[in-house]
Write a structure and sequence with these properties.
Rossmann fold, 15 strands, Beta-Lactamase, 15-stranded mixed beta sheet, 14 helices, 3 domains, alpha/beta, 33% helix
Amino acid sequence: MTETYRFSNEYGDLTRLPLFSQTTNGVPHEVPSGLDATVASPPPATSDVDWALVSALRAQASEQLSQAVQSGRARLGKEAQQELGRSIVLDLIESAMAEAVDAGLGSWSPAKQQATAQAVFDSLFRLGRLQPLVDDDRIENIVIVGHDNVQLELIDGTLVPGPSVADSDQELIDFLVFLASRSEVNARSFSEAQPSLHMRLDGGSRLAAVAWVTTRPSVVIRRHRLMRVTLDDLVKRDMMTPVVASFLRAAVRARCSIVVAGAQGAGKTTLVRALCAEIDELEAIGTFETEYELHLHELGRHKVVIPWEARPGSGERGPDGRQSGEFTLDEALVDSFRFNLSRQIVGEVRGKEIWAMIKAMESGTGSISTTHAADAVAAVRKLVTCAMEAGPHVTQGLATSKLAATVDLIVQLSLETKVVPGGAQRARRVAEVISLAPGEKEPGYATTHVFRADATGVAVPDVLPDEYRRLTQHGFDLPAYLASQPLGART
């Protein structure tokens, strides 16, 4: 839109509001690697916003926008629609302020002007009442159990309560249904027939939601604040020691196949990004995720990154158990064999896609993946179970032997929550690193703790298999490792 709107001095110049400044889409906002993560206070609630008024203005703006788009001869793209929406919101705000003055309610403060305009625009094009939380660089994760029960995890691990994100649970559900259906890149269904929702948001955050099968609608939004992260950055954040970082860096460069395991929210994706930062920029990489989280294809660190994203199907399942349009990680991995990739990076192994991953590792090395597990040895059992989901032809013995022959290292992350003054705080760290090798007896594989958690939960050197001494060629600090080994393990 090129038309300029002029407002009286009584209302102020709304074009100066942050709502109407240009924003950047694409790669999510990130915390610089050297940022001090100390947070002095929790994010403030938007107290200047009348949400009933916002809802009414949003309905008017939506109707006007729809009419304008339908009457236009050319199809407006997303940016053009937003620009048109900005002018509509400005006009509605001006009218609302004039009505307030005529009714004897007084003029709006600049803060109320700004907050209301931003809220209407966010409700129309973005995440509504969730948007201020997603935009706050102090917040890493948003956990919602009902519209008025919100927990925020800040970037230093502190947990604090957050503001309500809707006026009722039904309003929250209605918003999630709208959000799922409007996605231009990968629309999802969210209904009583499809009660779970997993999707990527504009800006790169990941949303998981569930309703109807739980007592209250629940939502988790994971924001990715550490994007261009390195192993040295994680050392500075006390996630690992310099010796662990030295070993993992050398393992990636030596093309060891690595599985990162841990609980939900333990930092697996962040560690995978840091490991991938050690891959040569000229290597061709494929990433495989249910929703894009790694964002290696947007960071510009590697010349060739081909990102695959799974796609849920729709409608009833056919005789083969598949929904129309469904595209699985298993299919993506098989598809990738024709793309001359140097490495395959799987965001999370949940099922039979590990079998395709094993095939990839048999023909190449250096793959990296993640999975949920309580400890490193349990991760092996979890992967065996996942591989057996590929069909009856994959027996436990076959799955075990294949995994033992293709996976080199398992890195286990721990997540500890402790009570601190004013709330709680989470600490993430590397707790174990084990090497995996074929074994002649039950259970069919042998594990060695290269690093084992000490009494404080920090991974410290334990036993180094002889074959990993070669990692000194790739920068492994062997003297520092040996100096920290327990006396009984030194040779």
